[in-house]
Design brief:
The chain has eleven helices and nine strands. Helix 3 runs antiparallel to helix 4, helix 3 crosses helix 5 and helix 6 packs antiparallel against helix 8. By secondary structure, the protein is an alpha/beta fold. 36% of the residues are buried. The protein starts with 7 loop residues before the first strand and ends with a helix. It binds adenosine-5'-diphosphate and magnesium ion (MG). Residues 19-20, 43, 47, 142 line the site of magnesium ion (MG). Residues 173-196 are annotated as: Disordered.
């Protein structure tokens, strides 16, 4: 896949290597080359706004003074609360009223549980993937550190069969309910079988399964993962494991970005990085004297990355 042709570019890597900075630079470069670009942060500890020196919020907004560039930092709490409300609305239609207080309690517990923010941010990423191409030409993802990114990328394909299973259970429950309510409502033959057309919950489950499996496909076909690393042994080791996991998962890997190279010149670990990633290609970026924040410094980085004129 040609680098500039990937609809989605995901910057991944260990904490502190420069994912946010480079996602911001990458997006800015794409926008300057004429593409309508949205950059999204999927790290709950958002810092994308800091890189642009512009506050960003829960919905996409233009980034000051840069044409064709939008940024968004989805709010995991607000997303979880919206999701809880939707599930409760569906449950109200599908379940007997007396079980609703228990369902409500369960959901509020689950909403506060581990993994919820991650899953909410994955949902928001899927929403945005569906809008590219369309509302935007390119999507750039500033991701959370390695482990979170790998789970986020695996989530759509892991959840698809699970949601499929829920849909099957719901189909059986609705059919059984109809049979139990007698021949008058069940009618003859297959009329007792549940279809998504007449059960909103089932409709929602089918829709969710479809969206998850499409996202799993898009992440493998239209996305390029750019791993960022710094010349340090531990970072190299983590990056190698991540690269292997991603390759095995069927994701496309672009050249790695070796960032924050100190001015001292070649070192053992630099040589090791160049050797290990010779097949992928390595783009090298020096440690800048000033922190690369704000449009001007990010634009210089974008040129070094090869994504702007
Ligand atoms: N090439 C570079 N030169 C100098 N400082 C850099 C460079 N890349 C990143 N930084 C700085 O390193 C710190 C971590 O970068 P950041 O983009 O937040 O990393 P991550 O998102 O991977 O945690 C920030 O202070 C950032 O400004
Ligand atoms: Mg970051």
């Amino acid at each position: 896949m040609l680098l500039s042709q990937a609809a989605i570019t995901i910057l991944g890597g260990k904490g502190g290597v420069g994912k946010t900075t480079l996602a911001a630079a990458y997006a800015l470069g794409l926008a300057r080359s004429g593409l309508r670009t949205l950059v999204v942060s999927t790290d709950p500890a958002h810092s994308l706004g800091d890189a642009f020196a512009t506050p960003l919020g829960d919905s996409p907004q233009p980034i000051a003074e840069v044409e064709r560039l939008w940024g968004v930092q989805p709010d995991p709490e607000a997303t979880v609360q919206r999701r809880v409300r939707t599930i409760l609305d569906d449950a109200q239609e599908a379940l007997p009223r007396e079980v609703m207080p228990a369902v409500r309690r369960q959901l509020h517990h689950a909403a506060a549980g581990p993994g919820m923010a991650e899953s909410a941010l994955t949902d928001r990423l899927i929403d945005l993937i569906e809008r590219v191409p369309g509302d935007w030409d390119r999507l750039v993802v500033d991701s959370a550190p390695t482990g979170h990114l790998l789970r986020m990328l695996d989530l759509p394909s892991l959840l698809t069969p699970w949601v499929q299973g829920l849909a099957r259970q719901r189909e059986r429950a609705v059919s059984a309910e109809r049979r139990a309510s007698g021949p008058l409502t069940a009618g003859a033959g297959g009329a007792a079988d549940a279809t998504s057309a007449d059960d909103p919950l089932l409709q929602r489950l089918h829709e969710r399964r479809h969206r998850l499996s499409s996202a799993a496909g898009r992440l493998r076909e239209d996305a390029l993962v750019r791993l960022v690393l710094t010349p340090r042994r531990m970072v190299l080791a983590e990056t190698e494991r991540a690269a292997q996991h991603l390759r095995e998962g069927g994701f496309h890997l672009g050249p790695v970005i070796l960032n924050q190279i100190p001015p001292e010149g070649d070192s053992e670990v630099l040589t090791a990085v160049r050797e290990r990633f010779a097949d992928h290609g390595v783009v090298e970026l020096a440690m800048a004297q000033a922190e690369p924040t704000g449009a001007q410094r990010l634009a210089a980085l974008a040129r070094e990355l090869g994504v702007a004129q």
